[in-house]
Amino acid sequence: MMKLLKTSSLLLPLFLFSCTTAHVIEKESPSVVANTTTEQLTASVISSADETSLTSAIKPVKLTSITNQSCAIGKVRLTANFAAGRMDECKRVAENEFDIILVPENTPINSSPWYAFKIQAEQNTDIKITMRVRGDNHRYPPKISRDGKTWQLQKYKIKGKRLIMKVTASPKPIIIAAQEIINNQYYVDWAKKLTDENSFTHSVLGLSTQGRPIYKIESRNPQTNEWVIILGRQHPPEVTGALALFPFVETLLSSSELSNYFLRKYNVLVIPNINPDGVDAGNWRSNANGLDLNRDWVDFTQVETRLINDYLQHLVAQGQKIKFAIDFHSTKSDIFYTMPVDYGIEKAYFVRHWLAELDRQMPNFNVVLRPGNNPDLGVSKQYFSDKFGIHAITYEMGDNTDRTKIKLIAFKSANILMINMLSDVDHDKQ
Questions:
Q1: 3-state DSSP assignment of residue 245
Q2: Tens of pLDDT along 50-80?
Q3: Which residues contact 422 (CB under 8 A, 6 or more apart)?
Q4: What whole-number distance in Å separates Cα of residue 331 and Cα of residue 396?
Q5: Within 13 A of 373's CA, how many CA atoms are on the CB side?
Q6: What is the pTM of this model?
Q7: 294 and 226 share a domain?
Q8: Beta-bridge partner residues of 398
Q9: Which has the least CB within 10 A, 9, 242, 253, 261?
C-alpha cells in the first residue's frame, strides 16, 4: 500500500493563491504584527470549532447591518453588492479617501470580521481606505484580486484599531477581501467537475433557512455499508478549511489504485457547504438566523444541521454504518481537534495512528492534536462520537497557512487515511 501513496497524483483545487510577493507592513505602532503570513493579526482570536466560549451560553442579539451608499457613487466607487460581498458601513471622508466599518451580524460572536468589496474608478486613481471593526479587532489581512481567481496579499498597515491600505483604482474592477472568495456557485462548479465523468452523484440534500440548496456528493457502493462523512463551511469566513477540503475529497474520489480499493470498502458522503446563507451574506460566523451551526449538533434547532442528522439517521435505519467523520474549519493555526483515546469509541488509537504517520511523512509540518470532550457544546465532532460511537475530527487550517502547503497536507492526509482504514493494523492498541 505504501507504494500506492507515492504514485498517486496530486489533484489541485481550482483556486490559485500567490504568496511569492513579500507582504510588507509599514510599522507605525507597537500594535502592528510583523509577519501576518504566519501569524494572526490579533492574538485574541478564539478557535473556530472546539472552544468553550460565551457564545455557547448567551443567546445572540441581532444587529442591523448598515450599508452606506455614499461609496457607490462618484468617480471612485466601492461596492459590495455581490455574492459574499460585505463592508457594512462605508463613507467617503475626503477626496479619494474612504472609511469602512465592519459590523458583526450578532453579538457575542467569534472574532472573524469578514469583508469583501469591489473598487472601480473612471480612470486610474490612487485611493486610501481605512477599515475599523465595531467592538472587535481585525483578523484577516487583506487580499487583492484583479480577476476573481488569483489572489495576492495587499500591502497595509495597522495603526491602533485601524487597518489602512492604499490602492490604485482603475476602470477594471478589483476585489479586496479578507480571504479568497469561495462563494456558493464555486462549490456547485467544483462538484460538477468532480462528478461529471464518474459514478459519483451530486444532488440537493435540502434547502437552507433562506431556501438555498445544500448539496451532497456521494460515492456509494452497494457491496458495502460503511460510510466516511465529510463536512465543510459551517462558518462562512473559514476559507482555508475549504481550500483543504477540495484536494482532500479529490484525493479520496480520485482514480488512483488506492482510491479504487478504498471506494470498494467505504462509501463517502461529502456536504461541502453547510451554510450557504451565511456564505452569501458574508457573515462572520452564523447562518441566516444569526446562530452558530457548530453549536447546534445537540438540539438541531436549525434546518441546516437537522437535514444532515435526519439523512444520517435514515442511512443507519437502512442498515448503514457511519465509520468516520471529518469537519473542515479554519482558525489561527493548523490544529486537529480529536476525541480522547479513552472516550470509549471504537478503534481508540485510529486517529493517532493516522496523524502520527502524517507527522512522520511531513517533517516540515507540525501535526498538532488537541483531544477534547465537550458533550454540551454542540459541535459536530462530539455529535459523531456520541451518536455513532466513532472517531471524528475537526480539521483546522490556519488562516495564513501557505496555500500550496494546505493542498499538500490534504493530499498526504487523505492518502494516509485511506491506507490506515484499509490496513489490518490493530487500532485498539497504541
A1: helix
A2: 433 333 333 444 444 444 557 999 999 999 9
A3: 1, 261, 262, 265
A4: 6
A5: 10
A6: 0.86
A7: yes
A8: 331
A9: 9
Supply the pLDDT for residue 46.
32
Catalytic entry in 51, 238, 250, 396: 396
Give the residue carrying C-alpha cell 475549504: 242
Domain carrying residue 109: 16-177
Sign of CA dihedral 174, 176, 182, 184: negative
Asked if residues 373 and 384 have their Cβ atoms less than 8 Å apart, the reply is no
Are residues 145 and 209 located together in one domain of the fold?
A: no
188-212 pLDDT per residue, tens = 999 999 999 888 999 999 999 999 9
* Final residue before a domain boundary, out of 177, 199, 223: 177
Burial class (CB in 10 A: 0-12, 13-18, 19+), 43: exposed
End position of a domain, from candidates 177, 200, 226:
177
C-alpha cell at 399: 488562516
Name the packing angle between helices 239-252 and 257-265 (round to 10°).
90
Q: Which amino acid is at 256?
A: S
Query: Do 143 and 188 fall into the same domain?
Result: no
Q: 257 and 193, same structural domain?
A: yes
Domain identity same for 409 and 312: yes
Same domain, 195 and 157: no
- Work out the angle at residue 65's Cα, subtended by the Cα atoms of residues 63 and 67, and round it to the nearest 5 degrees: 160
Is 97 an active-site residue?
Answer: no
Are the C-beta atoms of 339 and 373 separated by less than 8 Å? yes
What does R_g of the chain's alpha carbons equal in angstroms? 22
